[in-house]
Fold this protein.
Amino acid sequence: MRRRGISPVIATVILVAVAIAVAIAVAFWMTGIVGLFTGFEELQITSAYAVASDNTFTIHLTVKNTGTSPATVDNIIINGQPFDDTFTVLYSSSTATTNSTLNPGNSFTINPGETYHVYIQFSIGASWAGGKLDHGVSVEVKLHTAGGKEYPKLVVLP
């Protein structure tokens, strides 16, 4: 009986095919690992305005997370100071039917691609940061995240 093995050309083709398959698998695996470590948060305040009604101002913010990882808003800073009970802060996702109240020390998370609405309510003439929040006053609102980033927006009270 005559025994024959595979030809050297076919053996080379098989080895090259296996090497390419392993290289592609490693490339996909590395891309997944890199994606885990390179996620970032990026909030955009797409709309900001204030309205006055009765004896109250309400600042309306529309915030979208355009990043690749969730952003947790852990504080709202108004004119350089973290908000307190002087303000009522409500928030909701664009798909929610009700608003939630944000209390000092609490937080909320905006997932990638989500849009949230934030409402900051306070009395006309309220004392804050060494001044009065009255008609014509500029108010700087910053959303502070757990990642240490701040996203500012300037709003003029009507």
The chain has two domains: 1-38, 43-156. The first helix runs from residue 8 to 37. DSSP finds one helix and twelve strands in the chain. The chain has a mean pLDDT of 87.
